[in-house]
Every structure is written in C-alpha cells, then in structure tokens.
UniProtKB/TrEMBL annotation:
Pfam families xrefs: OB_ChsH2_C (PF01796), zf-ChsH2 (PF12172)
Domain ChsH2 rubredoxin-like zinc ribbon, residue spans: 5-30
Organism per entry: Novosphingobium organovorum
Location of the ChsH2 C-terminal OB-fold domain: 35-76
Lineage: Bacteria, Pseudomonadati, Pseudomonadota, Alphaproteobacteria, Sphingomonadales
Source species, domain of life: Bacteria
Protein name as it appears in the record: Zinc ribbon domain-containing protein
Length: 107
C-alpha cells in the first residue's frame, strides 16, 4: 500500500509533518508524493488513559515510531503483537468515520 508524504520539488527532501516551506532548502514548491510506507519500527508505547471520552472505549492503544525508508520518522498507530526492531509497512486505516490514520503492521 502507499501513503502520501509531502516532498520538495526542488531538492527531493521528504517533509513530515508537512511544512509551508521545505525544511532543507526553504523552497515552497511542495507536493504530496505517494510512497511505499516501509521502514523500521524504532519504538512502541501504549496509551492507557485519555481525556477524550470517544477514545476511552478503544484503550489501550499502541503507538509506534517508524523510521521510513524515505528518511522521515512518523508516529502512528501499531498493530498488536509488533516488537522492536522490525521491518514494518504503514497502511491507511480509519479510526472513526472520516478520520484516516496510518497503522504500522508486519512488512
Ligand atoms: Zn527542498
């Protein structure tokens, strides 16, 4: 599956999170780029508490830090059972109607 990451059209640097100008060369020629969301799972953490009543029904939630092959690190949700270090891929998933998120899963 592919995910969309902002990429500078001048120098090719991927920017995550998206910026108004490139973090490397300050160009404003930026566009979303579809990439294979593959990388290395660096860290996992589990969220047990939330102040948002909508989230309480879904706890605990596992979060992952993933170093993508394109050179950026992202924080996303994680499938249960993952352990570090591991090769993972990110897949889009829907956490609530209309809200799409990335989820790390076994590569
Ligand atoms: Zn740039």
């Amino acid at each position: 599956m592919t995910i969309s990451i902002q990429r500078c059209q001048s120098c090719g640097t991927f920017n995550y999170p998206a910026h108004a100008v490139c973090g490397n060369c300050l160009s404003d020629a930026l566009a979303d780029c579809a990439i294979e969301g593959r990388g290395v799972l660096l860290a996992l953490s589990t969220v047990h508490h939330s102040l948002d009543p909508e989230w309480r029904a879904h706890l605990p939630v596992q979060l992952a830090t993933v170093d993508l092959d394109c050179g950026v690190q992202v924080i996303c949700f994680a499938e249960p059972g993952l352990q570090t270090p591991a090769r993972v891929c990110l897949a889009p998933s829907q956490d609530r109607p209309g809200v799409w998120i990335a989820r790390a899963q076994d590569a």
